Amino acid sequence: MTIFLASGNRHKQDEIAQIFSPNEILIPADRGIKFDPEETGATFVENSLIKARALWNIVQEPVIADDSGICVDLLDGAPGIYSARYAGSDDIKGVKISTKLDSNERNKILIEQTNIGLKAFRNKNPTVTHSDMELRSCRFVCAMVLYFGNEKFYVVQETLEGNLVSSINDSAGSGGFGYDPVVYLPSFNKTVAELSENQKNSISHRGKAGRKLALMLKQL
Asked: 66: Cβ–Cβ under 8 A, 6 or more apart, which residues?
């Protein structure tokens, strides 16, 4: 079966191709298709469906689409769906967006905002005994949809739990991308960016979501 992936990322294409083997995984560029739908959803699931429907309307073949981001508990789940464009907040709960920041700048802003949130939480809850690291809990979230057209689709959402480091100076690792260097995994005593590719794929939010959808496809 040929399945289109609603992405322009070749690395993601390779990852999904391994998970959904022996199916052929194509991205829009493989057919010379320009694809950049406006993501107007309020959730990861809504955005993944927007991308899936938009690409299916063009290719009329099965589509895999995903939307992912990082959610920090001290920030009430921000940056969430705005993760790729996150530029901080004036009041912790509100989100500002920008496409002009690089990953390191975005990571630094997220850490600074989380530190503000931690201080505010401590002031309001002086008797809480949890460590700062425990309170800096966060998770990567991935919603992934397998879309067959005519509103027939399967959707899953998976997470990878971790803790945000306390300073940009604590970022570590050269693997992965985005927020990976600043998310610490206690069970590995490493950041996500310090994991091997096999380790990351085995526990990542996208890997888990993809494997679950691939299993559903085999059972159809």
From this structure: 6, 7, 48, 142, 143, 144, 145, 206, 209
Residues 6+ apart with CB under 8 A from 15: 201, 206, 207, 210
Q: What is the pLDDT of residues 51-79, one digit of tens each?
A: 999 999 999 999 999 999 999 999 999 99
- Asked if pLDDT for residue 91 goes beyond 60, the answer is no
Q: What domains lie within the chain, and their CATH numbers? A: 2-219 (3.90.950.10)
From residue 12, how far is each of 26, 142, 176, 177 by CA, in Å? 11, 13, 11, 12
The secondary structure element, H or E, covering residue 199 is: helix 197-203
Catalytic residue among 36, 67, 76, 90: 67
Q: Does the annotation count 76 as an active-site position?
A: no
Q: pLDDT-based confidence at 90, cuts 50/70/90? A: low
Mean pLDDT of 180-208: 95
Distance set, CA 201 to CA 33, 58, 61, 84, 204 (Å): 28, 30, 27, 20, 5
